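User: two proteins, same treatment. go.

Assistant:
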Amino acid sequence: MQTATRSATHSVEESIEVAVPVHTAYNQWTQFKSFPRFMTAVKRVEQLRPNLTRWVVGAGPLRHEFTAEIVEQRPDELVAWRTLDRRAGHRGEVTFRALAADRTEVVVSVRFEPLGVRDRLLHRAGTMPRVLRAELRHFKEFIEGLGQEGGAWRGVIRNGQVQPSEQAPPRSRVAHWPVG
């Protein structure tokens, strides 16, 4: 009889204050294709659908590709995702909180399950928190240097489903228009 052991889930959370309004920080964060411009670990991001992205991340010659689904997204508040690939095994969220008219706190939380010896060593060595902290500093420098977002996606996603951007017009309460 074999017993399956499940490795422990690890969590990393880092926050940073950026000197831009909350909508500017949020709008820039939704521009996933721009991540390689300021995040050193992100090599490429492809937006497959509004709620589906393909990522290539790595350092040096090591590369890892995964697909992520955005499961929750609320403008100026939250972007939450989960990976769809078994090998990647993580989920996370980034929240945005207005501290003042021109200051925003950005908090990134990532939960992952180390799947191999290399992943467990990276976690034990404290690499993940350091990388996340450094990448948030890069985001801060990027967005503060621009002073404005380079685009925006203001849609809402709930339970992985993109919500209609405009509500349907109210229906008439009259069953049938009178004829004659």
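Protein 2:
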Amino acid sequence: MTSPAAEPRVRVAAYVIRRHPFPALLVFDHVDSPDAGTQVPAGGVGPGEDAQRAVLREVAEETGLTGARVVRRIAVDERPHPGTGQPRLTSFFLLDAPPGGSPAWEHRVRGDGADAGMRFACRFAPLPLERPLADGQDAWLDRVDPRWTASGTDAGGRAGG
């Protein structure tokens, strides 16, 4: 007898773009866990929570950035978690960054999620990225602008051979 397939964890991920003085993507690194890799804000959607509201909440919780504006959903990625193999369904959204602000800062995560208290070094990284993001999070940047794939990846965010 086979067990029923697990329901995927519903998630959102944010491509927050600052366009001036040059195109740049909001990314962060875990200050206390550098091996986690460079990432974009992402996380779970709460029960009954709208995905657009969830992506704005995740950006604010993980980076402290408020005032971003959702432009559109870019893609829905259905890949398992790289560590646990559990199913995930992640909607990637394009957001415009608010004008002004610092190009880099440190933020301590607030809220009651698993990442509460973590310190993230946030910055706007010039596009195209120098290196791929952790967990293939940059896989959909080419749907915003084909020139924005990371060095060493093809247009789908896959490592080049």
